[in-house]
Structures are given as C-alpha cells and as structure tokens.
Amino acid sequence: MQARLAAWSAIPQLLREPPRFGDIFIFAKQKEPNMSFLDKIAAAVAPAASDESRAEARRKVEALSHGEEWLRMIVEQHKQIEALFREAKASSGPEQRRAALDRLAIELTGHANAEEAVVYPIVSEDSGKTHAGMAYEEHAMTKVQLSKLERMDPSSKEWAEKLEHVQSAVQQHIYQEENSWLPDLVENTSPAGKALLNARYREEYERYRGKAR
C-alpha cells in the first residue's frame, strides 16, 4: 500500500482522490513513451513484484485456503492461468498460438467474470473500495488487450510482445490479490459472506465456462 500511495502522490491532479486506471496510464505515457501501455500502468501504480515476493504470497494464501473452498478455487484458477500463459508463449506455429490463446482467454474470462460478480463486491466492503476499483479496472483493461491480441497476426513479433505484456500485468494483478485483497477477506468477511462466496463463485465460473464450450 505504501508503494501505491507513493506513486499516486506523484500525480498532482490525483492528490486528493484515489487514482483511476486511465489517469495512471496517461501519467505513465508521459513519463515513459517507449514502454508498453500495460507496463506503464503497472510502473505507475507500484513496482512489479519479484518472483520471490509472488512465491511467498502464494505460499501464504495457499495456507489460508485450508477450509476456505472459495479461496482454494481462486488460487487453483490462478495456477491454471499461469500455466496457460506459459503454454501460449511456448507455442510455435500460428495455429498452435491461436488455440493456446483461445484456451487462455476462456479460462481468464471465466475467472474474471466470477470474481467481478461475487468476490469484488465483498472486496469493496472487507478490503477497501480502492482495491475493488483497481481490480475491476485491471480486469477490464486485460480483456481489452486480450481482444486486441486475438486480432493480431500470431506469427508476428508484435503478438509475442503483447502476450508478454499481458502476462506481466496479470502476474501483478494475481500478486495483489494473493498478497493483500484475498487475505483481507479471510480475516474480515463474516461466515455468511464466506458461505456466499463458496456457493456463488463456482456457480458464476461454471456458468461462463459452460457457455464457452
């Protein structure tokens, strides 16, 4: 949180209110014109987490997930998304890349839709409205970039570069969830709220996956 506040304080027009995703992008664009736009956003909000920090956050959230089925499902989906990014990056021919990207987009969109419908309203109450606002906007921008990626030539250098940028942004988003936002729910959400998470999260995820098949 201190890193985010330090970044926000560098944006004069946002000193008196939490930053919006688009405002951070405009500021970063002015600062680093040669960076990708997703990298600009991540750099403006907070430095990217190291591999060690992400691994430590994963260990802690996995420990917290015992007895929290909703959290176990989210973390397992995070792992699946990470594996699908690796699969897409390792794909060679255009058809393989398209197929890998399709699998990634289906999993990522189903996961995002379930979080937006069920998890983030509770994040707003039990972790913070700023966290929930960031989460919704990060999902929206990732969906936009995935859509652009689907329309690019999968054999091009630009396709590979954009996939790398989307992966970096998603990695940072997952870290924020696992390091802070989701542990806050474990600590602060009522038993009734957790029962709702358990019942509704799987329902929303499977509703999208069923439509996507």
What labels would you give this structure?
single chain, 213 residues, mainly alpha, Four Helix Bundle (Hemerythrin (Met), subunit A), 2 domains, 9 helices, 0% strand, disordered N terminus
Structure write-up:
The protein folds into 2 domains: 1-46, no CATH class; 67-213, Four Helix Bundle (Hemerythrin (Met), subunit A), CATH 1.20.120.520. The chain has helices at 2-9, 21-31, 37-45, 51-64, 69-90, 94-126, 129-150, 157-188, 191-212. It contains 9 helices and no strands. Helix content is 81%, strand content 0%.
Outline of the structure:
The protein has helices at 2-9, 21-31, 37-45, 51-64, 69-90, 94-126, 129-150, 157-188, 191-212.
Q: In CATH terms, what is the fold-level topology of the largest domain? A: Four Helix Bundle (Hemerythrin (Met), subunit A)
What is the count of β-strands? 0
Helix and strand composition category? mainly alpha
The description of the largest β-sheet is: none
Between the first and last Cα atoms, what is the distance in angstroms? 39 Å
What form results from the Cα inertia axes?
globular
State the CATH class of the largest domain: Mainly Alpha
- Strand content is under 5%
Number of domains: 2
In CATH terms, what is the architecture of the largest domain?
Up-down Bundle
Radius of gyration: 17 Å
Helix content: over 70%
Question: CATH superfamily membership of the largest domain, which one?
Answer: nmb1532 protein domain like
Tally of individual helices = 9
> What is the average of the pLDDT values?
83
Low-confidence stretches: 1-34
Question: In sequence order, what are the helices and strands, one letter per element?
Answer: HHHHHHHHH
